[in-house]
Specification:
The protein is 29% helix and 32% strand. Strand 5 and strand 6 (147-156) form a beta hairpin. Helix 1 packs across helix 3 (29-37) and helix 2 packs across helix 3 (29-37). The chain has seven helices and nine strands, in the order H-H-H-H-H-E-E-H-E-E-E-E-E-E-H-E. It is α+β, with helices and mostly antiparallel strands.
Length: 197
């Protein structure tokens, strides 16, 4: 990964301006602009340390062509079933590649067995990208009132169907009125699954 890619990715993820990034790193705005344009590809060790701390991974190994490893937070539990209340419980961090970091925002630990048919087992970690919209049929993290679950999300005839991947677990159906009043809403898309046996 190049310095230009690192800076542009961080700018996109953080929402910070070129000036704000320059201020954080203690360099001139014009320096960051030259990084963004790809005009400068090397940085001092002092700036490299500050940049690594800012972006959350080891920049020096990436600039040398190595696949950087990063930590992604495990922010809590999600039910592969129903009736689990939504709350954030920081459970630590999971080692991940930079590619995974670019795709997802956090991990959730799955409890329950409603999604075993797609490889989401009790204890699996699912990498989640924060979003309020997913394509029909994608596996999503859904908030139902105060409850949170992971299911295949299907929108059909203005109804929401939360489809399990286990024949022993019933699908749930929500009318347009229930979608609005409960409410039922997508809070993330499952990007990948890690299962430790």
């Amino acid at each position: 990964m190049t310095l230009q890619e690192i800076i542009l990715d961080y700018k996109k993820r953080s929402g910070l301006s070129t000036s704000q990034i320059a201020l954080k790193l203690g360099v001139a705005r014009s320096t960051v602009m030259r990084w963004e344009k790809g005009e400068v590809t090397q940085i001092t060790s002092k700036v490299c340390t500050a940049l690594s701390k800012t972006v959350g991974f080891d920049v020096s190994s990436l600039l040398k062509g190595n696949d950087g490893r990063v930590k992604i937070p495990i922010v809590g539990y999600v039910k592969g079933g129903y009736d689990m209340f939504a709350q954030e419980n920081f459970l630590g961090e999971e080692d991940a590649s930079l590619a995974e970091k670019q795709l997802g925002d956090y991990y959730l630990k799955v409890e329950g067995s409603s999604m075993i048919g797609v490889g989401i087992m009790p204890g699996s970690l699912v990498l989640v990208r924060s979003t309020t919209h997913v394509e029909n049929g994608k596996i999503a993290v859904i908030l139902i009132g105060d409850e949170v679950t992971v299911k295949r999300f299907i929108l059909k005839n203005r109804m929401v169907i939360l489809e399990a991947a286990n024949p022993d677990v019933e699908n749930r159906y929500f009318t347009p009125q229930e979608i609005k009043t409960l409410p039922v809403r997508v809070i993330g898309e499952v990007i990948s699954i890690k299962t430790y046996l």
